[in-house]
Amino acid sequence: MTREEKHLWYDFLKKLPLTVNRQKNIGNYIVDFYISSKNTIIEIDGSQHCKEENRTRDELRDSDMQKLGLRVIRYNNIDINRNFDLVCRDILKRLDIDISELKK
Length: 104
What we know:
- The chain has one domain (3-94): 3-Layer(aba) Sandwich (Endonuclease, Chain A).
- The protein is α+β, with helices and mostly antiparallel strands.
- A hairpin with a 4-residue loop joins strand 2 and strand 3.
- The protein contains 4 helices and 4 strands; from the N terminus they run αβββαβαα.
Protein backbone atom coordinates (compact mmCIF):
# COMPACT_ATOMS: atom_id res chain seq x y z
CA MET A 1 0.00 0.00 0.00
CA THR A 2 1.11 3.55 -0.68
CA ARG A 3 1.54 6.08 2.11
CA GLU A 4 -1.82 7.66 1.23
CA GLU A 5 -3.58 4.29 1.15
CA LYS A 6 -2.14 3.45 4.57
CA HIS A 7 -3.28 6.82 5.92
CA LEU A 8 -6.83 6.28 4.67
CA TRP A 9 -6.88 2.70 5.94
CA TYR A 10 -5.43 3.15 9.42
CA ASP A 11 -6.92 6.54 10.18
CA PHE A 12 -10.40 6.03 8.74
CA LEU A 13 -11.54 2.97 6.76
CA LYS A 14 -10.72 0.33 9.37
CA LYS A 15 -12.96 2.23 11.82
CA LEU A 16 -16.02 1.92 9.61
CA PRO A 17 -18.84 -0.36 10.78
CA LEU A 18 -18.41 -2.34 7.55
CA THR A 19 -16.00 -4.96 6.26
CA VAL A 20 -13.45 -3.22 4.07
CA ASN A 21 -11.04 -5.40 2.09
CA ARG A 22 -7.63 -4.04 1.08
CA GLN A 23 -5.92 -4.93 -2.19
CA LYS A 24 -8.86 -7.09 -3.29
CA ASN A 25 -8.74 -9.13 -6.51
CA ILE A 26 -11.81 -8.52 -8.65
CA GLY A 27 -11.64 -10.10 -12.08
CA ASN A 28 -8.30 -9.19 -13.64
CA TYR A 29 -7.82 -6.21 -11.35
CA ILE A 30 -6.58 -5.49 -7.85
CA VAL A 31 -8.57 -2.68 -6.24
CA ASP A 32 -7.29 -0.55 -3.38
CA PHE A 33 -10.34 -0.97 -1.12
CA TYR A 34 -13.53 -2.98 -1.60
CA ILE A 35 -16.71 -2.77 0.47
CA SER A 36 -18.89 -5.65 -0.67
CA SER A 37 -21.95 -4.70 1.40
CA LYS A 38 -22.07 -1.38 -0.46
CA ASN A 39 -20.88 -2.70 -3.85
CA THR A 40 -18.24 0.01 -3.69
CA ILE A 41 -14.58 0.29 -4.60
CA ILE A 42 -12.37 3.12 -3.34
CA GLU A 43 -9.28 3.89 -5.40
CA ILE A 44 -6.44 6.22 -4.41
CA ASP A 45 -4.68 7.59 -7.47
CA GLY A 46 -1.09 8.79 -7.60
CA SER A 47 0.27 11.25 -10.14
CA GLN A 48 0.76 8.48 -12.73
CA HIS A 49 -3.03 8.38 -13.15
CA CYS A 50 -2.92 11.86 -14.72
CA LYS A 51 -1.15 10.56 -17.82
CA GLU A 52 -3.49 10.10 -20.78
CA GLU A 53 -2.79 6.37 -21.24
CA ASN A 54 -3.42 5.71 -17.56
CA ARG A 55 -6.62 7.77 -17.54
CA THR A 56 -7.87 5.69 -20.45
CA ARG A 57 -6.93 2.50 -18.59
CA ASP A 58 -8.73 3.74 -15.46
CA GLU A 59 -11.86 4.52 -17.48
CA LEU A 60 -11.87 0.98 -18.91
CA ARG A 61 -11.30 -0.48 -15.45
CA ASP A 62 -14.13 1.60 -13.97
CA SER A 63 -16.41 0.53 -16.82
CA ASP A 64 -15.57 -3.12 -16.17
CA MET A 65 -16.36 -2.66 -12.47
CA GLN A 66 -19.66 -0.93 -13.28
CA LYS A 67 -20.63 -3.90 -15.49
CA LEU A 68 -20.23 -6.03 -12.35
CA GLY A 69 -22.61 -3.70 -10.50
CA LEU A 70 -19.83 -1.98 -8.57
CA ARG A 71 -19.43 1.73 -7.94
CA VAL A 72 -15.92 3.19 -8.09
CA ILE A 73 -15.00 6.21 -6.00
CA ARG A 74 -11.64 7.81 -6.79
CA TYR A 75 -9.52 10.22 -4.80
CA ASN A 76 -6.03 11.37 -5.63
CA ASN A 77 -3.04 11.57 -3.32
CA ILE A 78 -3.41 15.35 -3.04
CA ASP A 79 -6.97 14.89 -1.74
CA ILE A 80 -5.72 12.48 0.92
CA ASN A 81 -2.77 14.68 1.93
CA ARG A 82 -4.48 18.08 1.90
CA ASN A 83 -8.19 17.42 2.44
CA PHE A 84 -8.32 14.23 4.46
CA ASP A 85 -11.34 15.26 6.54
CA LEU A 86 -13.30 16.18 3.41
CA VAL A 87 -12.43 12.82 1.82
CA CYS A 88 -13.63 10.99 4.92
CA ARG A 89 -16.87 12.96 5.03
CA ASP A 90 -17.43 12.31 1.33
CA ILE A 91 -16.93 8.58 1.84
CA LEU A 92 -19.39 8.56 4.75
CA LYS A 93 -21.95 10.40 2.65
CA ARG A 94 -21.53 8.09 -0.35
CA LEU A 95 -21.75 4.99 1.85
CA ASP A 96 -24.72 6.43 3.76
CA ILE A 97 -23.04 6.08 7.16
CA ASP A 98 -23.71 8.39 10.08
CA ILE A 99 -20.53 9.67 11.74
CA SER A 100 -21.85 8.43 15.09
CA GLU A 101 -21.51 4.85 13.80
CA LEU A 102 -17.70 5.08 13.63
CA LYS A 103 -15.64 2.87 15.94
CA LYS A 104 -13.72 4.82 18.54
